[in-house]
């Protein structure tokens, strides 16, 4: 593929709009239930190309409403118009320092900036992080459901080709064990992970792990079992169970990752672009690799735009052990035609997604 050689291209226009996407089925996690993904879409235009970015605010996790995220992204427009897209690091830094904490809005803006930069250079987004746009394989998430429904959902996932499933937990230990057991019955050969979304105490985490073990059910990962502000509790849970423990909601920034590693609080760090954005996610990955901590990548309820941006980071860095990029598989309709299976086929330039 030929590459354009230039000294940069000015941003001419930035557009921000809501992106409301109905889900195939209600998606219940311990903080609540969603029926729609109330996202935002950011487009950045130069004279010749358009870049696309998406954010998926979820108030219990990101602290934002859709309206707040839209307002932040619109306020960021004046920091971008007329600026050289080649200075993407400075642009991202300026936006993030101006609107700290507005992570979904910033993910959308940052993705649009990097997508526009890569499209202008006729390169895949993954190449910005050191790798070619190879296919990425994801698991599929089963939300908080009664055991019979969870069993049906798992059987359907196996029919669609998924051999790795993540089960949402964080209610009571008894209900959570019953749900995971039902999923295991339907998919006995699948790798099973669980995500408590901060719903347990350290003692409940131990009870859950012990009960699964007594039933002969293997669990590959327990994700964020305790509240995000309880790093000590996360470390206690990790020390008390044999199942690897992942930090998710506790890690938004590279500094958070350093804190988790210093406290020896997790075996795995979940890098989620909806919390950190692309450039900081790459920094978190470097910190985890240096500390010999495994990497996971997760998502919010994003369409192919956000999912493919995350998958390009995975392909570029190449060291993620756990991939949970199924957000668009949970939508009733994506922004492009999407296959139901586990493989995310990547292309370029940029993240390769132009909404239909």
From TrEMBL:
Which CDD domains does its entry note?
L-Ala-DL-Glu_epimerase
Q: Does the keyword S-adenosyl-L-methionine apply?
A: no
Under Gene Ontology molecular function, one entry of this record is: metal ion binding
The UniProt record lists the keyword Isomerase? yes
Q: What SMART domains has UniProt attached to this entry?
A: MR_MLE
Q: Which InterPro entries match?
A: Dipeptide_epimerase, Enolase-like_C_sf, Enolase-like_N, Enolase_C-like, Mandelate_racemase_C, Mandelate_racemase_N_dom
Cofactor names:
Mg(2+)
For this UniProt record, the keywords arranged alphabetically read as follows: Isomerase, Magnesium, Metal-binding
Mandelate racemase/muconate lactonizing enzyme C-terminal domain ranges (all copies): 147-244
Instruction: State the PANTHER family in the record.
Output: O-SUCCINYLBENZOATE SYNTHASE (PTHR48073:SF2), O-SUCCINYLBENZOATE SYNTHASE-RELATED (PTHR48073)
As for family, the record states:
Belongs to the mandelate racemase/muconate lactonizing enzyme family.
Q: What name goes with this protein?
A: Dipeptide epimerase
This chain's source organism reads Haladaptatus pallidirubidus
């Amino acid at each position: 593929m030929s590459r354009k050689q230039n000294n940069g291209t000015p941003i001419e226009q930035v557009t921000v709009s809501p992106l409301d996407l109905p889900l195939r089925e209600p998606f219940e996690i311990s903080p609540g239930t969603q029926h729609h993904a109330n996202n935002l879409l950011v487009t950045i235009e130069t004279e010749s190309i358009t870049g696309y970015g998406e954010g998926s605010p979820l108030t219990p996790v990101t602290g934002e409403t859709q309206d707040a995220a839209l307002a932040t992204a619109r306020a960021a427009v004046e920091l971008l118009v007329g600026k050289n897209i080649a200075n993407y690091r400075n642009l991202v830094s300026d936006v993030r320092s101006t609107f700290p904490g507005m992570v979904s809005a910033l993910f959308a803006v940052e993705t649009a900036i990097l997508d526009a930069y890569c499209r202008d250079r006729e390169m895949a987004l993954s190449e910005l992080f050191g790798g070619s746009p190879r296919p990425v394989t994801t698991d599929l998430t089963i939300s908080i459901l009664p055991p019979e429904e969870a069993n049906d959902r798992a059987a359907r996932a196996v029919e669609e080709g998924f051999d790795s499933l993540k089960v949402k937990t964080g209610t009571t230990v008894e209900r959570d064990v019953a749900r995971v057991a039902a999923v295991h019955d339907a998919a006995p050969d699948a790798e099973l992970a669980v995500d408590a979304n901060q719903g347990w105490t350290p003692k409940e985490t131990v009870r859950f792990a012990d009960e699964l073990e007594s039933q002969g059910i293997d669990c590959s990962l327990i994700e964020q079992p305790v509240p995000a502000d309880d790093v000590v509790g996360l470390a206690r849970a990790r020390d008390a169970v044999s199942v690897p423990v992942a930090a998710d909601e506790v890690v938004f920034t590279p500094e958070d990752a350093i804190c988790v590693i210093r406290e020896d609080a997790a075996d795995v760090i979940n890098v989620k672009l909806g919390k950190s954005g692309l450039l900081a996610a790459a920094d978190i990955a470097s910190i985890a690799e240096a500390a010999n901590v495994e990497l996971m990548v997760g998502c919010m309820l994003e369409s192919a735009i956000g999912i493919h941006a995350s998958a390009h980071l995975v392909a570029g860095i190449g060291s993620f052990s756990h991939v949970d990029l199924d957000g668009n598989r949970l939508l009733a309709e994506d922004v492009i035609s999407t296959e139901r299976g586990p493989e995310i086929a990547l292309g370029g330039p940029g993240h390769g997604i132009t909404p239909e």
